[in-house]
Each structure stands twice: as structure tokens, then as C-alpha cells.
Write a structure and sequence with these properties.
By secondary structure, the chain is α+β, with helices and mostly antiparallel strands. The protein has one domain. Helix content is 35%, strand content 31%. The longest helix is centred in the C-terminal third of the chain and has 52 residues. The radius of gyration is 23 Å and the shape is globular.
């Protein structure tokens, strides 16, 4: 994808191209074979990315804050209108040069805010993409967009710590992608039709698909059921959105300890390098002093 992350230090800023997944919703097939659907593909809050996703491969994960003012700005929302829908992500993003080769559909211009999400209608117009959806081979969406990543620690309104902030979000395309590693609402919420929008980054997806993630969801569901058991038949169900929240919170909490470990490893390596350099200089000084005798 372009532009690519700039592998600088943790306090430096740069533009990155990111991809966030979301389920395809409100799907209907038209008489001509095309598929019309709706995507709720963006939300504010803190996302957890792998370090490699944001140009910091030395970090295992990074919490990135997406402010509400940035997500729901008119420029950001409008940038996703009339964009190509692709089958998988093109290696170089979408431009006029490759649009006819990679496009299997398009987004419409009626972008709106739906509660905490940005919602946009779209169309799958290519037979291969429609077939992949109907066979269950590709049923998720992945928004490809660029943003300025401003590095700096902070605390989001919900109390979650973050290490960078997204600014100037601009849409490039939306890809139809396989469920595969990403899982689905059914995997984490027991109901594909629950209506929850379980959008995850790669790091969050990895946790959701792991045995650890499934155990966390099972424990949260059991705790929910115990707390509401006194309500009997009136007890609220454990929802897909709650399950998604468990995964997001767990991914965010893991970052602190892991980053401390990463920094310790980096500091240890730097200290060893300093010791080696001191030894080299000491050896050189001794050699020079010996020759001067």
C-alpha cells in the first residue's frame, strides 16, 4: 500500500496506509446479479495495531487513538465516497492507473454517521466478487485509507492509554476480503445477525482468533450470566458488541507490559553496544600507549 510507513523513532510522525476490517451488513441481491450492501466501517476510540502495521516493527503492538473529531469530520467521511471496492487489497492502493483492473464495485456518496460509526452504501458489481461472497469465501470488508500518524502518549476519553493519534484520515478504497484469520461476528458473538459491528485491527483479530481470546470471551459471558441470573427470563443476552469490547480491551491492556519488555530489550542492546564500544576504545588506547613506549 502507499504511502508506506516511515520506519523512524517512536516520537517521529509520518503518513501511513492502514486497513481495518468490518462485516458486510444489510446485504441484498439485485435482479441483475449485483449485490447492494452497507458498511459501518469506521469508529472513534483506540485501536491496537501490530508494530509492523504502523512502521514500528521493533514494537509488538501500538495503541492508536482515532479522535471523534477526525473520524466524523466532513472531509474524512466524504473521502470514502465514490471509491473503488476491490477484491482483496491492491498492492499499490487504487489510482486512476489501475482502477479498471482492480475495481469490482464502488461506494456511493451517501456517507452518514450512525451512532458511533461511519456508514456508507456500496455495490458489488463483479461476478467473481459476488460469487466469492455467496460461497462464503469473502464476506468481510477492509477499508484502506491513509492518515497522518502523530506519535505521542495520551489517555483517551474512555481511559485507554495510547501512543499515537490518527489525523487527516482519507479513504482510498474498500476491499472485500476472506474471513480467514479475521474471524467473524459468529466466531466472537455467537450470532452473525446480531447487528454488532465487530471491526478489528490485525492485532485485535489475532487475539480474537486465539485460544486466549476465546477463553476471555467465555469468561466474560459466564460473568455476565452470573450477574444477571436473578432476572431469569428477563436477563439480557451477552451480545457480539460486548464480546468485541472484551477483545479490544484485552488487546489494549496487553500493550503496556509488552512495550515495557520491548523497551527493556532495546535498552539492554544499547547498553551492550556502549560497553563494547568502551572496550574497543580502551583496547585501542592501550595499543597506542604501548607503541609510544
Amino acid at each position: 500500500m502507499v504511502p508506506t510507513p516511515n520506519p523512524k523513532g517512536p516520537k517521529e510522525n509520518g503518513m501511513v496506509m492502514l486497513m481495518d476490517r468490518a462485516p458486510l451488513e444489510r446485504v441484498r441481491k439485485l435482479a441483475d446479479g449485483r449485490i447492494a450492501a452497507v458498511a459501518r466501517f469506521a469508529r472513534s476510540g483506540v485501536y491496537t495495531y501490530s508494530g509492523a502495521e504502523v512502521g514500528k516493527p521493533h514494537l509488538s503492538s501500538v495503541n492508536v487513538y482515532r479522535p471523534e473529531a477526525e473520524v466524523f469530520s466532513q472531509d474524512a467521511m466524504a473521502s470514502f465516497g465514490h471509491k473503488a471496492v476491490t477484491f482483496h487489497h491492491p498492492s499499490d492502493g487504487v489510482s486512476a492507473a489501475n482502477w479498471s483492473k482492480v475495481s469490482v464495485g464502488f461506494t456511493e456518496g451517501k456517507i452518514a454517521r450512525d451512532g458511533g460509526y461511519v456508514e456508507i452504501p456500496l455495490m458489488l458489481a463483479d461476478a467473481q466478487a459476488v460469487g466469492a461472497y455467496e460461497r462464503g469465501e469473502a464476506r468481510e470488508l477492509s477499508a484502506g485509507y491513509s492518515c497522518d500518524l502523530v506519535w505521542g502518549d495520551g489517555i483517551a476519553p474512555d481511559g485507554t492509554a495510547y501512543q499515537a493519534t490518527q489525523r487527516n484520515i482519507r479513504g482510498n478504497h474498500i476491499a472485500l476480503v476472506p474471513l480467514g484469520r479475521a474471524g467473524s461476528e459468529c466466531r466472537i458473538g455467537d450470532s452473525l445477525n446480531s447487528g454488532a459491528s465487530t471491526m478489528f485491527t490485525d492485532a485485535e483479530r489475532s487475539l480474537a482468533d486465539s485460544a486466549e481470546g476465546q477463553m476471555l470471551i467465555t469468561q466474560a459471558r459466564a460473568s455476565h450470566n452470573r450477574k444477571n441470573a436473578y432476572l431469569g427470563d428477563r436477563a439480557p443476552a451477552f451480545t457480539a458488541e460486548q464480546a468485541a469490547g472484551v477483545i479490544r480491551n484485552a488487546a489494549a491492556q496487553k500493550i503496556g507490559a509488552q512495550n515495557l519488555a520491548d523497551r527493556f530489550t532495546a535498552d539492554e542492546a544499547a547498553l551492550r553496544a556502549q560497553v563494547d564500544e568502551a572496550r574497543r576504545r580502551n583496547s585501542l588506547e592501550r595499543s597506542q600507549a604501548y607503541r609510544q613506549r
